[in-house]
Amino acid sequence: MKDFPQESIEQARWVVDKYRKRTKSKLEIAAHLHDNYFVHINYGFSEAIKKGNCSLYFHEIDKECDCFTYLGVNYLIAREASLAPKMWWATGIKDVDEGEDISEERALDHGFITVEIGKGKTLLLDRQMGLYGFATFDTKHNIIKVYNKKDRKITYRHYQHLSKISQEEYLEKLEKSRSSEGGRTALSTTQRIRGAGKREVYLSYAPETHKLKSSIRFPIVNFGSEPYNKSLITDLETGVNKNGTYDFRNGNLSVYYASIDGWAEHENPQVPIILPVRSAEKLWKIWDYLMAETGRKSKIKQRTGALKLMEKIKEAGFDDSFTIKPRSRASKSIRINSLEKILEEAQKAQEKTINFYVSEVGKDAVSYKSLLRHAHYVKASDKAKSKNPKGFVYPEKEHLTLLEKEFKNYKQASWRFFNAIIEQMKVRVGLKKGRLYNVDRKYQTTFAQESRNTRYLDVMGALGFASELFIITQLP
Q1: Residues of the domain holding 304
Q2: What angle do CA 81, 84, 88 make, to 5 degrees?
C-alpha cells in the first residue's frame, strides 16, 4: 500500500511523541492536533507558489498550505497517534452556528478529518475552518452536527455532497497535483493568498476555458435589509497559454455585486461591467499625471482608497461619463501632457463597455432592479448637490435620526444579550434550576441573533467611519 514519505512519517511521529509526553488521553491528543500544537501550519497558498509545488508533503511545508494538503498532514499525525482517522471531502459546505441564518453563509468545497477517541465517540477536526467537536452525521439531511463541549456551542455543517477519501486516493491526487499540471489542478478549486496591503486575493483557474482569475471582494454595509448588493466583487481574468504563461494586461476587469460572495462561486452574481485592462491602464496613466499635480508621489494603483480617489478625480474635472469639464485641472493636465489621444481611446472603450452592459443587464431581473434603484439614487444625489457638494440624498438631520434609531436598537440588543449571560450564570452557579445544556443553547442562539442585530454599528465602530460614509441607497 502506498504511504507518505518516510520524512513526513518521522515528523508526524515527532509531533505525536510531544503530545504523549503531555497526556495519555486521546481526547486531549486530538485537541492538541486541532490547536496546531507543534505543527504550526496555517492556511495559505503563497508558499506553494514560491516553491513551484502546489501540493507539499508534511516535511516540505515551512508555515502554510492549502486545505487539501493540510488534510493529509492532519490525517498522518492522527494516524500515528492511533486515532483511527478518516478523511472527508465535502462540496457546498456552509457552517451555521446556533441562531445564525444559513442564507448569509458562503459556500465552499473543503476537506477535513474525523477521529475516534472511544466507542461511539467521533470528533471532527477542522482547524482551517475553526470547527472542532463531537460529530453526529445526518446523511438524510446532509448535515453534520458538531458539538464543542469546551466552548458549549453547536455548529451545523451543511453540505451538498460528502465523500470519504482513502489514503491511497489521497496520495494519488496529491502526486498528480505535484506534477507540472499541479498548479492548474490546485487553482481549479480556488486558493487564497495575501496581496498588497494584506488584502485577501482569491486565485482560480477554469480548465474548460483556460482562464486564470484573480478576485477581491468588498463587503457592503447598509442599515436594514439588503438582499442583493451585499458584496462588491472585482475580478481580473486572462487566458493561459498551453505552456502556462499568461499576462493579466491582456485580460479584462469585471466589477459586479452579489448577495453572498462564495469561495469559488457567488450567490446571485449580477451582470458585470467589463473593461479591458489595457483600456483601464490608459485611465490610470491619465489619473497618475493628474494626481502628480496634487503632490502625490506614488502611482494611484498603489494602495489608494477608492472613495478618496474618486473624490479627487471628480474635483479635478472628470465626470462619471469620463468627459472632461472645460477649464478644469483635468483638462489642463491632459493638454500639458499631450494625453488627448489616450483619453479618446479610453472613452471609446468605456462607451463599448457600457453598451455591452446595457444589452445584458435587462436579461437578469436582479441586475436590472439593482440598476434602476441605483439610477434613482444617482438622480436624487445629483439633485441634492445644489444643497451639499457631496450629493447626500438625506440631510444631516435624517442621518442623525437614523443613527439614533440604530443606536437605540443597539442598546436593546445589548441588554437582551447581557440578560442571556446573567440567566446562564444563574444556572451554572446553582441559583436557578435548569439544565446547563439547555441554557447554553439559549445563550448561543441569543448571541448570534443579537450580533446580527447590531452588526451595522459594530462595523462602523470598528472601522471608525463617520456616519456620512454610510449613505442609504434604498429609496422609496
Answers
A1: 277-361
A2: 115
Residue 271 is classified by DSSP as: P
Segment 169-173 mean pLDDT: 95
Mean pLDDT within 69-78: 97
The burial of 1, by beta-carbon neighbours within 10 Å (0-12 exposed, 13-18 middle, 19 or more buried), is given as exposed
Contacts of 408 (CB under 8 A, 6+ apart): none
Are 69 and 144 members of one domain? yes
Give pLDDT tens digits for 399-425.
788 888 888 999 999 999 999 999 999
Please report whether residue 376 resides in a domain.
no
Note whether 17 and 123 are same-domain residues.
yes
pLDDT digits (tens, 9 = 90+) for 36-65: 999 999 999 989 988 888 889 999 999 999
Nearest Cα to 340, choosing from 285, 274, 276?
285
Q: Are 444 and 97 in contact (CB under 8 A)?
A: yes
Does residue 317 sit in the same domain as residue 335? Answer: yes
Res 397 pLDDT > 70 = yes
Domain assignment present for residue 115? The answer is: yes
Cell reading at 130: 475553526
Statement to judge: residues 296 and 328 lie in one domain = yes
User: Are residues 12 and 151 located together in one domain of the fold?
Assistant: yes
Select from 97, 111, 122 the least CA-distant residue to 445: 97
Residue type, 450: E
- Give the long-range contacts of residues 414-417, CB within 8 A, separation 24 or more: 414/450, 414/454, 416/446, 416/450, 417/446, 417/447, 417/450
Domain assignment of residue 136, yes or no: yes
By the 10 Å C-beta count (0-12 exposed, 13-18 middle, 19+ buried), 343 is classed as buried
Is residue 55 assigned to a domain?
A: yes
- The Cα 91–Cα 280 span in angstroms is 36
C-alpha angle with apex 101: 97 to 104, nearest 5 degrees?
Answer: 110
Residue after which a domain boundary falls, among 244, 270, 296: 270
Do 339 and 408 lie in a common domain?
no
Residues 409 and 463 in one domain: yes
What is d(CA 131, CA 341) in angstroms, rounded to the nearest whole number?
A: 56
